[in-house]
Specification:
endopeptidase fold (from Nostoc punctiforme)
């Protein structure tokens, strides 16, 4: 829940140098779950701090090739990320996201 609180408390305006992977990294850091920064493509391939899971839970990562977000409400397929209009939520089963290819889910591994 700390990850979701940090995500939804994110300012609506970020500089143009921000992207989805930087946003997700900052949210996890703010929530007390640090990891070495990784791009969306690196996260898609898998990184040390996350374990791939088949069934997402609130706070897990959802990752496509080139894009990453945080699952907010898996029962409604809602995720939070940096979208074309800025930080916000969307349905990861919408036609747009389905068109991006297979999404993978990852859960943070606390050490």
């Amino acid at each position: 829940m700390a990850v979701i609180s940090a995500a939804l408390d994110t300012p609506r305006h970020f500089g143009s140098n921000r992207d989805c992977s930087h946003l997700v990294h900052a949210i996890y850091e703010r929530a007390g779950f640090p990891y070495v920064y990784a791009s969306a493509d690196d996260l898609y391939d898998g990184v040390e701090s996350f374990r791939r899971v088949a069934h997402p839970q609130t706070g897990d990562l959802i990752v496509w090739q080139g894009h990453v977000g945080i699952v907010v409400r898996p029962s409604r397929h809602v995720f939070f990320s940096f979208l074309s209009r800025g930080p916000g939520t969307d349905d990861y089963r919408s036609a747009y996201w389905a068109g991006r290819g297979e999404a993978r889910f990852y859960r943070y591994i606390k050490k």
